[in-house]
Amino acid sequence: MTDLRVERSRGQHFDWVFAGIVTTLALMGLVNLVSAAASGVEGGSDIVSRQVTVLGLAALVIALVLVIDYRHYDRFAYVIYAGSVGLLLLTLAIAEETRGARAWLFSGRFQPSEFAKIGMVIALAHYLGRHPPSTIRRLRDLFLPGLIVAIPVGLIVAQKDLGVAVLTLLIGLTLLPLVNVPLRVWLAIGLVGLAGLAGLWQFGLKDYQQERILGFLDPSRDPLSSGYQQMQSRIAVGSGGLFGTGWQQGTQTQLRFLPTQHTDFAFSVLAEEWGFLGAALVLALYAAMLLWALMIARNSKDTFGAALAIGLVGTLLWPAAINVAMVLGLAPVIGVPLPLFSYGGSALLSAAIAIGLLLNISMRRYVF
Amino acid sequence: MNDPLGHSRLSNTSDGPGQLRLWPIAVVVVLIFSLFVGRLFQLQILEGDVLASRSQANSVRTVRIEAQRGTIVDREGRTIAASRPAFGVDVIPYEVRNPWRTYSVLGAILARDPREIAATVGQPRGRRRFQAVALEKDLARVEHAKIATHRYAMPGVELHRKPLRDYVYGSLAAQLLGTIGEVGPKELKSEAFADYRQGETVGKTGIEAANEEHLRGRAGGVNLIVDVGGREIDEIDRVEPIPGGRLVLSLDLDLQQAAEAAFRSDDPETPDRMGALVALDPRNGDVLALVSEPAYDANIFAGGIDQAAWRALNQDEWRPLRNRAIAGVYPPGSTYKAIVAAAGLAEGVIDETTVVNCPGYFRLGRRVYRCWKRGGHGPVDLEAALRGSCDVFFYELGKTLGVETLARYAKLFGLGRTTGIGIRGEASGLVPTPEWKLRTRGEKWIDGETISLSIGQGANLLTPIQLAVAYAAIANGGTVVEPRLVLRRETWDGRVVEETAPRIRAEHILAKPILDMVVRGLTSVVMDPKGTGRRARVPGITVAGKSGTTQVVSLDLVEDLEPEEVPIRYRDHALFVAFAPVESPEIVVAAIAEHSGGGGGSVAAPMVQKVLARYFEKTESRVPSQIAAVVHLEGAHR
After folding, report:
1. Smallest Cβ distance to A241: which of B5, B12, B52?
2. Which of B44, B92, B567, B621 is most deeply buried (CB count within 10 A of its CB)?
């Protein structure tokens, strides 16, 4: 019964700044999507109404994640982790191959790897809560957290969804700077990582994936596919200028020179139509959101909360970084959506869980 | 206490969250986003003008350059299917400025009604506005020149080069070569066609489909800068297409032509024969000729077949699209007797001296089975039974062997399963057994059915290619070969990619002496003055063979009619299968003339003869010294 009173008082601790930044980004994404869809992408109006539905759903998810004290997630960390790994296994077992990957359930509507990221972060945070990062000094102390990361990453590699596997690995690595491991250990990890990458290139990558990376290094290599996408994206971004061509006025966008402009290339639509000012504003909002989330980590009352917040920063930072780098021609074409901004159900809902958890940690920072 | 998990605090040692090392992550975030803003500045402010000019006044258009489909040649390198350059004209609805004038000019050039063109193009919305609508796929030279001249007055009208398939001999081996067409929406969704684009040509049936990957080649492309009117301003980059590979078939063009000619009637009154013919090399399974009649001109598929023509072909009563040689199933009739004879010899039920008296009929219980020769053959041994195709001899033999044994030997010769020729749609035929009958019809086997079976009637079904493979095994001393259609795969400029090795299904299926006895009988079928296959003789060559005639309907349906009154559908099939030279067989020919109304010996044997004659005419015209050398070598061996 006391809980009710407490819940009311917690309203005062609600992190309005963070929620405000997130809402602004999501709404800007929607406005952008309306323009991208207006060019006559297949099922254009459908796309907008579906995105509105998913946004509503995301708000609901945030609220749900929010009401449960985040320390309950600590208690059930390994259960959540096991559940998300189980979903990955299930996907591997029953999903049909689409475009070379076996990564979706329910005929392509649900991508368990999106949720596995969150499960992995919760498990890592749980481990760090029990084993404070400052006490982790030796490489062997990293074995268990390493395993927590390796299992989902390995399963996603097995699904042949390489972009997401790399992404998940990066998210896991986000927590590494916390621990107290000496420099030479870092070097060792780096070497192993490089060897792993070389092996992956040789045996793990499909021809078209190698093509994409080579196409990035030398865009004229295959102007018909990935090199072409990137060239068109660069032209779109460049033609935005300082102020942009205006909403629904982008030539590249409206003539559909841009591929997958409502999903992976949503940011280039924004850059063309809103120019440098609009695009830089959105980037600034992302940076502000992430830095604010790091503040939440710092102010958290326990190590679990702090580590969880940092891991969640990783789940938002890396997809955003990879996506924008790709749009700006700084990274190869990897099908990773921009969190909160791109069209897409699973990605948006997993971002919502992350946001909900961050708000949750922020809200309960004073309460003991 | 409102904190159910307060104890977690205790587990934290000195390590308060405040002491966590967060700055590296913050630095990474700041660095990444600064880098992005810098890159934005570079692209949008510094290079913005250049890129904007590309985007606004000019747009980049990617034009795909289709690869030429690989050529298909016969075993001697003569081209059967080529690819020729062709020009087509498309309309991109979004770019058309003055539809009525554009369509009028186009209509005048193409001799088409402008209203019809307008209807073809339509007024698509959304994304489809930018998609080219094909008006004509194979323009005449003059049409192309005229459109090229007027092109700039007609924005939205696009000329494109797209190579078209050219089947040099029209209907030659049409069903075997197969059909091509645009890749369908269903295929596009499937994994196998992941890298295909709408409108791309793909092999749909036959050799074209079986070798799609090799024949397809790789499309190239060019990125063009075009102005608002669609005029080319500059070429940014270009990737040349790689033509599809060359396919060397085992077919011999001369033999194929001779075999197809064998189905044509000289007399304008009588229609051409329908049916199938297969010529195989028994030593390695090479398919030298493969005919299915009636055929069609394969070139109607070259530029994409129109609906009406397709429907007409597809609904034709005599199914010209169907490859009868591999997908048509027929009762083998008396050609089956060679297999029954081999079974009898191998089981030790008969030998060369076994004599059966043929009174012209055979009695089993209360039923009487007639021999085709009403008066009977009298006492016959195996050789005489094969030569005169005596039914009673084989009724007797089949009854002793039983249905299971017959089925076992039929399967030994490769019947009842596909031969592995590697063309989609091959039929496996049927070797009936009591178990099969119980499973499919729920009825028990009747002994009388075994009697019908032993002369190749009843539920027995095989394809012409199976018949050829079975007789190849008799001819080559007991090896069941897989028919080989492709000898070599080469790149478009003639480098060998892959040699296809002959493939063997089974070896030594029966002892050589047993097969020799069967061959002796089959030889007398052709070479003996009383044999039923006399008309398959080729001067100077020893030929062995067997005729067959199979009823399509029960005798009582047609018994009272004069031969020419019998409806075509009810007329008998005529079969003949032969191999030569008997001493060391090089070629097996199996032919079936559907509903010919004649017997195998009178109708099908002369067809087989024409192919054999052509074959030996060719081998004899080879440089004699070469043959002499071979003979000399062989002599030296002994």
Report:
1. B52
2. B44
Neighbour count for residue B484 (Cβ, 10 Å)? 21
Q: Does some domain include residue A102?
A: yes
Residue A357 maps to a domain: yes
Stretch A214-240: mean pLDDT: 59
pTM over 0.90: no
CA distance B316 to B310: 10
Question: Which one of A236, A256, A279 has the shortest CB-CB distance to B40?
Answer: A279
Please check the confidence at residue B145 and state whether its pLDDT lies above 80: yes
- Report d(CA B578, CA B533) in Å as an integer: 9
Residue B530: pLDDT over 80: yes
How much is the pLDDT for A220? 41
Which run of H or E residues covers position B593? strand B587-594
Structure tokens at B70: 């690989």
**For residues A234 and A257, what is the distance between their CA atoms, to the nearest angstrom?**
11
Q: How far apart are CA A186 and CA A36, in angstroms?
A: 43
Q: In what order do the strands lie in the sheet with B573-580?
A: B287-293, B274-280, B587-594, B573-580, B544-550
Q: Tell me whether residue A368 is in a domain.
A: no
Contact residues on chain A for B195, CB-CB shorter than 8 A: 208
In tens, the pLDDT along B152-185 reads: 777 788 887 788 899 999 999 999 999 998 887 7
For residue A321, the distance in angstroms to the closest alpha carbon of chain B comes to: 7
Rounded to a whole number, what is the distance in Å from the CA of B87 to chain A's nearest CA?
22
Helix and strand numbers (H, E) in chain B are 24, 25
Q: Which two tokens stand for residue B352?
A: 């060369």
Give chain A positions within 8 Å (CB) of B191. 97, 99-100
Report chain A residues whose CB lies below 8 A from the CB of B48: 238-242
Residue B155 three-state SS: coil
A303-327 and A226-239 helices, crossing angle to 10°: 90
How distant is the Cα of B124 from the closest Cα of chain A, in angstroms?
11
Contact B55 A252 (CB under 8 A): yes
Question: Across residues A284-307, what is the average pLDDT?
Answer: 91
B266 by Cβ neighbours in 10 Å (0-12 / 13-18 / 19+) ranks as: exposed
| A306: chain B residues, CB-CB within 8 Å | 17, 20
Measured between CA atoms, the residue of chain B closest to residue A329 is B39
Indicate the length of chain B as a whole number. Answer: 638
Residue B631 at interface with chain A, using a CB cutoff of 8 Å = no
**What is the 3-class SS of B131-150, one letter each residue?**
CCEEEECCCCHHHHHHHHHH
| Structure ipTM | 0.84
Interchain CB contact of B145 with A (< 8 Å):
no
Query: What pLDDT is attached to residue B637?
Result: 41
Range of the domain at A166: 2-363
Which stretch of A19-28, B105-114, B145-154, B611-620 has the lowest confidence by average pLDDT?
A: B145-154
Whether A9 is covered by a domain: the verdict is: yes
